[in-house]
Design goal:
alpha+beta; single chain; elongated; 11% strand; 253 residues
């Protein structure tokens, strides 16, 4: 009975004291003026957001890196069932290789190389750099983060820190009329600019490059032979000189 009466007396008193403390704390806090609000920095606003954010909201808005999905076995099985012979079989094998490459590269950074061709290509990098900047700007406008570099006069490197964007980059580039082919994860996909005329011209360029390489190798081999002959002559001359000096010394003794 006494405990119950004490509880009834203490509870209102404790409540009154708690409210009084809260009131004094609110009054003691300095009220912000319009000038104070105007001079708030981004860090101040972030602090206010952090103070009002609940643990549930913090967890919800926290950055979560995309999870790697892995290989879609069902898609691979569908390609296997198609089977086929000759050209169709080769196309199915390329399709399977493409599926594996795309699904393996679903997380982390990614890079791909685009071969280009256009009127006036490819005596210098300037026109290719203009093309790379144009494509990169269009991709940025579509909220696809990437960077484009011209590594050769006819080759553009696309780099992204989000591999899930790589498929969108690839699809975009393959729609461009200047795209000959794009290579990603060691899989080469032809584009609209890979025409029979381009293939014939490319074959001529490759043959010329191979001939130039062969000529350089032959010149290098001939230079090595010349160096060996010169070294052999020098050794022979030194041997003769040493033999001559030995004969003169014997004669003097």
């Amino acid at each position: 009975m006494i405990c119950c009466m004490m509880e009834r007396l203490v509870t209102p008193a404790c409540l009154f004291i708690a409210l009084a403390c809260m009131g004094s704390h609110v009054l003691a806090r300095k009220q912000r003026t319009s000038k104070d609000w105007a001079s708030m920095t981004e860090a101040d606003w972030n602090k206010i957001d952090k103070d009002w954010e609940t643990p549930e909201e913090e967890e919800e808005y926290a950055f979560k890196p995309p999870k790697q999905k892995g290989i879609d076995l069902e898609a691979l099985q569908r390609e296997l069932k198609k089977g086929g012979k000759g050209k169709n079989k080769k196309q199915n094998a390329q399709k399977m290789q493409q599926i594996i490459a795309e699904q393996q590269g679903s997380s982390g950074p990614a890079m791909m190389f685009a071969t280009v061709d256009y009127p006036g290509c490819c005596d210098n990098k300037k026109m290719s750099e203009e093309l790379a900047n144009k494509w990169s700007s269009l991709l940025h406008a579509s909220s696809i983060e990437q960077t484009a570099y011209v590594v050769q006069n006819n080759t553009i490197l696309f780099s992204t820190q989000v591999a899930m964007a790589a498929k969108e980059i690839k699809e975009f580039v393959l729609k461009q009329p200047e795209c000959v082919a794009i290579e990603w994860n060691q899989v080469r996909t032809p584009g609209p600019a890979e025409t029979p005329a381009w293939k014939a011209d490319d074959a001529v360029k490759k043959a010329a490059a191979e001939e130039k390489k062969k000529q350089k190798e032959e010149e290098k081999e001939e230079e090595e032979k010349r160096k060996k002959r010169s070294a052999k002559k020098r050794r022979k001359r030194k041997a003769v000189e040493r033999a001559g000096k030995g004969s003169n010394l014997k004669y003097e003794l």
